[in-house]
Amino acid sequence: MTDLTNTNLLGAPGDVFGLRDQPVLVVGGGSGIGRATALLLGRVGARVAVADLDHARASEVAAEVAALGVQSFAVAGNVTDPTDAQRVVDEAHAALGGLHSLINIVGVASWSDLLSMDLAMWESDLRSNLTHHLFVGRAAARHMIADGVAGRIAIVTSISGIFGAPNHAAYGAAKAGAIGLARSMANEWAVHGIRVNSVAPDIIATPRVIAGFVERGISDMNAIVAADGVPMARWGTPDEIAGPLVFLVSDLSGFITGQNLVVDGGTQARFPHGGPKPFTPEES
Length: 284
Ligand SMILES: NC(=O)c1ccc[n+]([C@@H]2O[C@H](COP(=O)([O-])OP(=O)(O)OC[C@H]3O[C@@H](n4cnc5c(N)ncnc54)[C@H](O)[C@@H]3O)[C@@H](O)[C@H]2O)c1
Hints:
The chain is of the alpha/beta class. The chain has one domain (about 25-265): NAD(P)-binding Rossmann-like Domain (Rossmann fold, 3-Layer(aba) Sandwich), CATH 3.40.50. It is built from 8 helices and 7 strands. α4 (about 120-145) links the parallel β4 (about 100-105) and β5 (about 150-155). The site of nicotinamide-adenine-dinucleotide has 26 residues, from α1 and α6.
């Protein structure tokens, strides 16, 4: 039972996140935001299972995390398959001796206009961005409940789940669904002490996204974002999503559940139609 009068629960010296030695599973940890998250968890002393479709990448990241001096473990699997998702969670739970937190980053973007999109693409997007959160989330929650652990779950959604965009409907609908699913999980599992939140990034400079821009001959990516009106006038970094994810599974967010934290360099804080422009130095 939480002591509501105790104002001195936080901030054990050297372990303000309360994650030291805690077993945490990062799904999609082999690259980009997932890799940054696994490394940050290692830096705050957590023991980390790195799961990914790509075994080589999962192993590389697990080795990087282990080099920080914490236990780390790699597991390969395709979490869009319910049997594989269950196995990944079970193996992580067994290897780490429990599960304090789950961070699931997996998501795959596709592009198609609605009139020509076929059902296979629609269904694949829903599987890759929404349905696997059910498979992985409840497999983890069942372990947490059986172990009597007040666990934490954080998933990555997207601002595409909030705003509409042409040719991005399946991804956007799936991400909106993931925001809703996280809210429902938060409601159902609060009774077990489990908190569930999501983080919705705007554009983040991960190797996958950078490669896509380079392929199209675009090198000055910050200029594009600035021209689009992002107040901070730059891309975010993988670390800048890892930070909020780790915060949401840490003791520092103990009364936060069912939230979708938008991390967008200020875009949502601006007039939807552009609005007034900041003064130039001459005008101010
Ligand atoms: N990068 C951005 O600009 C951006 C913006 C908004 C939202 N997001 C979301 O952030 C998340 C991570 O994005 P990223 O750019 O780091 O992607 P990424 O492709 O670099 O990393 C995703 C990782 O997930 C793994 N993966 C994919 N499908 C899997 C599956 N079925 N089972 C297990 N592992 C699987 C991949 O192998 C990869 O290592 C995604 O959910 C994405 O939709 C990214």
